[in-house]
Amino acid sequence: MVYWATWVSTGSDDDSWARRRAHYVRQLARPGSFVLVAREDGRALAYALVTLEEASVTWPEPDGWAEIDSLSVLPEARG
Question: Residue 6 and residue 45: Cα distance in Å, rounded?
């Protein structure tokens, strides 16, 4: 299943970044969270913010999993 959301602007770029930054700070404060950065010749091309989640209350397995919270790739690095 593919889920697509429609982006609706809720303010200026500065406001959006302040909300996104606060989200990153909260997520990275969680145990086990980390960021992966893809680089080529020292230049960052992409990143992924990953959080570790606990076992589901619905499903017996797995004991936990990693979730990609945020993923961004420069347009020229996509393919």
Answer: 25
